[in-house]
Amino acid sequence: MAYNKLQTMRDNIEAIRTAFRLGVEKRPPTADEREVLRKYAGFGGLKCILQDANELADAAKWSKSDIELFAPTVELRRLIHDYSKDDREFAAYMDSLKASVLTAFYTPEPIVDALATSLRERGVKIKRFLEPSAGQGAFIDSFLKNENYPGTEALAFEKDLLTGKILSALHPSISTEIKGFERIDPDFEGYFDIATSNIPFGDFAVADPRYATSKEIAYRQSTKAIHNYFFLKALDSVHEGGIVAFITSQGVMNAASPFVRIELMKRSDLVGAVRLPNNTFSDNAGTDTGSDLIILQKHTGKKGMSADEEFFIQSIIDRDTKAPTNKYFAAYPQNIICTEAKIGTDPYGKPAIIYKHEGGVYGIARDLRDALEDSLRLRLNIELYNNHGIKPPTPDPVKPIPAPKPKVTKVTETPLMTQYREMKKRHPDAILMFRVGDFYEMMGEDAVKASEILNITLTRRRNGKAGSIELAGFPHHALDTYLPKLVRAGQRVAICEQLEDPKQKQKEEYKPTEIITPPPTVEPKPAPAPVEPVKEIETDGGPDYTDNPDPRLFAYNLFGELEPLEKPKRQPRQAKAEEDKPKPVAKIQISDEQVKKFRPLSEKELEFYGSLNWEDNPPINGFYETMMSIAHRQMAEMEAERQAAEATKKEIITENGTIIEKTEGYFVPQPREVKAATPAPVERDMSPRKFSEDIQHFHQNGSMVMDKGQVGFLSEVRKNGATFTPLPIKPEQEKRAMLYITMSETYQQLYHYEAETHEASTELRQHLNDYYDEFVDRYGNLNEKQNAKFILMDANGRDALALERGENGHFVKADIFDHPVAFAVDEVTSVDTPMEALSASLNKYGVVNLEYMGGLVDMEQDAMIDSLAGHIFYNPLVANYEIADRFIAGNVVQKAEEVKAWIDREEERIKDFPGYNGVEPFIHLSKESLKALEEATPRRITFDELDFNFGERWIPTGIYSAYMSNLYGTEVKIVYAPSMDEYSVDAQHKNMKIWEEFCVKGHYRTYDGMNLLKHALHNTVPEIKKCIGQDENGHDIKVPDAEAIQLANSKIDEIRNGFTEWLEAQSTEFKEQLVDMYNRKFNCFVRPHYDGSHQTFPDINMKLLGERCNVKSIYQSQKDCVWMLKQNGGGICDHEVGTGKTLIMCMAAHEMKRLGLAHKPMIIGLKANVADIAMTYQAAYPNARILFADAKSFEAKNRVNFFNQIKNNDYDCVIMSHDQFGKIPQSPEIQQEILQAELDTVEENLEVVKQQGKDVSRGMLKGLIKRKENLTAKLETLQYQMEQNKDNIVDFRQMGIDHIFVDESHQFKNLMFNTRHDRVAGLGNSEGSQRALNLLYAIRTIQERTGKDLGATFLSGTTISNSLTELYLLFKYLRPKELERQDIRCFDAWAAIFAKKTTDYEFNVTNSIVAKERFRYFIKVPELAAFYNEITDYKTAEDVGVDRPAKNEILHNIPPTPQQEEFIQKLMEFAKTGDATILGREPLSETEEKAKMLIATDYARKMALDMRMISPAYEDDPDNKASHCAKMIAEYYHKYDAQRGTQFVFSDLGTYKPGEWNVYSEIKRKLIEDYGIPSHEIRFIQECKTERARKSVIQAMNDGDVRVLFGSTSMLGTGVNAQKRAVAIHHLDTPWRPSDLTQRDGRAIRAGNEIAKLYADNKVDVIIYAVEKSLDSYKFNLLHCKATFIAQLKSGALGARTIDEGSMDEKNGMNFSEYMAILSGNTDLLDKAKLEKRIAALESERKSFNKGRGDSEFKLQTITHDIANNEAAIERMKADWERYDKVVQRDKEGNPVNNLTIDTCNLSDEKNMGIHLQGLAQRTDTHGLYQRIGEVYGFPISIISERVLADRVEKVQNRFVVEGNYKYKYNNGQLAMADTHAACMNFVNALEKIPGIIAQYEERTAKLKADVPILEGIMAKTWGKEEELRQLKSELAALDRKIAAELAPKHDEKDGEEVKPDTQQQQPAKVIEAPSSSQSQSTDDKKSMVAEPVAQYNLIRATCNTQIRHSGI
Whole-prediction pTM value? Predict the structure, then answer.
């Protein structure tokens, strides 16, 4: 039975209604209701519920295929709304329902029955059943129906709220959890027998913090993909031997990565896998998708994998079809259920095998049972299942017996294993660690135990012919790490060295073995016979030494300290009387798995933990301690108490807690004799108890504390208390621990107090010094080895170790011992000048404090104010002076208004009381301040200068509503929601303007004027689809409807463009008010002129700077920039490469520190530069204390200590690389805040998308849901980590960093943002990078602390390198508060104000012109630039006056070689056809087909560089790019040979790779062989594998030993100061970004280039190589356009308000146009192609316009015809009414009297006539003809019979009419069958309705007549671009004639001529003038800045069939 959407919808609605009703009535369902509930099939495939269905008008938006579902959808929404408690619950239901559209596909019942039956027949009995994704309970029904397993406990999870209600109603007896499976209680781990379900699939993240933070990588990775998570979580939830049977996507087994499958096979046995056909879900859910049934049996102790499991792990790809599958199915094809298979594609368009089964679900189920029968029979271990994985106990180890006489036997084991087993026999109850080489290894059961405790890998080792044995181990140097863990886990440990040669038999002499046992005292064993020299050594009371010490013997005490065994042993104590000895208690064995579990005690656990006690079996940590106390309370009255008391009589009380056995002793030392005078030791309470002290902020699980004089650890730490566990330690250790604890807690209290209060605590600091000094005197430095191990046992130990730092090989105190490090404490006491006093005042108070300043400088206050005139102004708003750079800065318009209001108010107050209150002097000062503000106010922008965008968020929506009401001719309401950045529109009374004129009809839906209005406001275009046929499954093939989209675009443009015209038509007052709003909001910023010349930089050492860094003086630009940064608290240093940004950074950081403007600044830079930054800082400030992070600082073992060094020390500056900065943990609170804001935005966007219904694609919806799930999971994981890791590690907030200098800040430009403009070119990646997000976290931390913007300084010569988003993202980093003031809360809101989106025409990769959406025009540029420049110091090298060479660009144009000419033609053909065989490669796969243009781009780039990049079959050509480049390099080499001039060669393609052909090596070969250049003088930067090698090459370059250096942009473009002898730069290719080209050129064009200055006229030649007809020209033009736009935006000299990326460059003349002409060859052909494309676009637009007008014409004709018909009908009906009205008889009440006569009835009474009429209605059959039966008032009455279907049976239905000019009916012609009077009155009532019908016709006609003028207006409209089209065609014809005339041979021309700016007009190269039509813009009042050589078109054509080469004249 085919899937029926309508029936499914109805069944779902009835099921939901029933579930709601049952919930209200609180009762179980009846049998009938259960059937209704079972029909619920979910909403997978019913996407219609996403659409609007709130009112009848919404039906117009629905597609034809879904319109039948409109009414049920309305009913569904109303049903849910009626049963919801409030709007919030209704929204929750609907959200859950809509989200389920993507996942709710239910499994057919026969399929589940087949699985359940197969398991049951194999003997699987279920007592505990888990369904993790239950739906309506199909698996529960199948597995548990008919009481198959009576008493079964079942738990089901369902995330969807409505489905969960139905599940609960259907199965009231089971436990139903309406939440995600990840919320399952941890107590259920290992609980269930079987888990089975059809699980969700997708890369949705799962919010399970425990898995996300697990040490197991498999668990962490599983939280990123929900299907993997379900498998692992389910395996954890079933017991050992339990079964997991899931239906899931084929992606689990087909995925290329085997990682998850490997993890599954490690944890379970593969019982079977079955591939289900694609039509499994067709009937039940309406979807065709591939799926697999995978059955696993949990088996964590498995030893290896079977062949089937090895197959399961491997996915394979068919060579012929490219379709993926799994090797398991290749081995077992019978497990693929199908009757046919063919090649197709999966839902993502990738190749896939499509399986079908013609037998439907029942046939599939039948074959599934057969496949399962074999799999279960062969692989299901029913014994393992029934026994829960518990195996029979293994026999005890064989005890040592006297060695028998040697016998000659066959060796079956390796000598190593023989030796191991000999040692194991001697220590059967200890874990034996065997030293083998550099590893300690454990084998057998010891390996299994150790791997679980230590979390190390368990593997196997071959053991000769005896098979293999379990093996686990670790490096020998890690012994100190792992040994304490084993001891704390309660294990005895024996350590033994392997023999030097295991083959050499030694009888009884082995290397020493140590035995370590946990702290509790155990019964001393009787001295063994001296067969094996074994000795136990007691260590608790003090070390016990042997007479024959071995240097490798050592003892571990509880603190992990090594105690050497080298002194003579002491006499052992005498043992106590036998009766005093404790009776040995049998040691209870417990598996490690039980040890790890934390849940309510079971019987076994009760038995185990009850055996723990403080006398003979103490707990080893807080966990065991807690469990013991619980068990003891439960067993207080049990028999164990009696046994314990009995055992106490024989117990030995010893001081020691650790026993070490050595295999060389002869006896076990006895306890020392106790002297009679010695008092008996006082027993101390060692039981766990409540911690008696208050919990402090630094307390956590594992903290070492003191309680009532005892040392111990805390566990179960909460706000209100914790559990204290005493430690049994010896007195000397206890003293040290107490002293350490006191010191550590003092430090924590000191730091916390000072960080919170910003006040120094002298008393606490003195205590800390005292405690530290005493500790060091007694025990040595904290970081000494014996102390460090002990301190690290404390959870806060790392903090304590950071109280020391290393200097010159010694440990010294951290700064916190001397002064506070959590805040600045330096106090300035005197300065030399008022300006310095001003800086100090700003530092201390944040304001101008004249009293404080007067105390710093020896000057009267009035004199000081006078000397600061122009620098400070009185601000009455704060009643104080403010610095000029702060007062006359920022929003001066608002500030001036407020100051003026204050002056007016005060003058009014005192006008009658002169001199009152002494306010007059302040009024005078305020007027001077006001005057300064007014003078600084930017020039007011007038209305004529403004360019408005429709949809700018700052414009009130009332203005938009008024405009649209005027345009549509009806009232339109527009509302804007700022939080969602969403406009909503509404019109109560729609008309033909909305329905017809501004309407586009698509194949699936109609977009009326309101839809297009919303798109116009958001500046988007609807993606309209059309159907081009159906696929093999009968589904529509949908493609974009280009014609409809273009029509919609033109109508949207009409709306948007009409807004400006409408504004211009408004009143002057209205326009002035709008302009005032704009000026107040945007044209209000002032950037002061920062003059830093007064700064003296008192600490700087210019002598060292000159010697080490060659810095002779400080530029004025550097001083100004530092002053700006000091005043603003940060900003952007946008200085060109080579202008001294490094020194700016160092000086600003130090000055901020010196003046207290920053307490602890940080500098981060590129890895290649950071060492130079540190060196520059140290040279400038040799006495500064800087912390420089080298590579070792961030190794895992050192990282935490390094973070603590930052936290605990008051460094002048911390310097590290970008990568190192990324490893600093960011504040969880800040991360949570930012992620929550992002999640809120996504949720709002998701809500908008859902409201758009059909207007949104399934992919977009899924993408948003995925992003929401991922963010939710991140947040929950973050919250979990915050709870778990409280105070566990130092994060960025705790380090105290309060300013970040970010060098090369463009590296962080990839910050996430949200936008609707996903198809617009040039926006960058909206997802962003983690690196950028980390920086945002850090900056937000600082901004939150200061409460204002900035807090960081960005330094880069390329702050805007490529994308429009970069400018917005700079503001997002640094100015979040100011953006919010401007109502800019997202990128779209910013772009709506400052950018115009247009459709431009650009080249694609094959030089064809295509249309592309882009933000081309940037409007309101001065205000945008002012906003940027307010916090930016922008300087070019010319501005700075850097003594550096000029750039002399030379374009080297290279004709294509014959091979390239031929390949270009192939490439163009490939781009058109997609036939890859043309290029000599395999045909494109379906995936590659989608990336065709990317492949073409790659080929084109390689072709231009060298044909051998494409295929090694091509040969060298003397005219290729490599040859040209080699020739040029050789010329420069010989020209500057005497000066040993050097050259850089850049290429990002064909970089050096050893052993492979590459362009670098090819050019080097030519230089050596053809030009005789020595090989050692040519180097590649890629050869430098280390930083030392890199520096060596750079030095050699500066020395002239290396003359030519090759490299890529990334490796050679930054961090290379090798400019000393550089004379030329060669660009083999052109990078994509302007910033990359700038960085490349900056390697030679920078200060310090001595050879260029002295011998090359202070110029560096930059040679750009471009092959004609290649991408070289395209990339160069693109680069130029971007570079020019960015430079214009940054420069303050903006003479226009608009920048057009696609306009001519007016500022630089025709220089770049000449470049374009040389590179392209013939721009006429370019212009011709552009004109043809533009003409084609206009003709298409005209066609759409005419089609729309034709539709309107037809509509007008139809309406006119309808009006005529209606008017005729009205006249005829009026005639009938007059006729009837004349003859009708009425009673007193005015009711008509019946005048009925029936032709076939002689009776006249109503009753009999009624009965007769009713009989006619039941028995008559007129066969569709009207038949007279009587009359009334002269009007004939007729009957007609119609055929209808009722309950699938055809019946006859009769209708009665009264005939006049029309046939009139009452009650649709049907008689009342129960009332004879009503039956008779039917005909009179029909005539009485005539006036009402006439009124309806008249109303309808009036409406139609109202639409006529609108349609006539549409008909009268003409297409407005006809003249433009005619002009373009004329230009095209003229251009054709010009091209024909120019296609004549040209004279030979030179190659590589230099283009000099001062000789531009003399160059005869072709100059392209702008087309005449483009000059129309010049008449516009609004000026436009331009950045493009040819007006209106921004790209050049580099390929043509015939071209004129301009290689130079």
Answer: 0.49
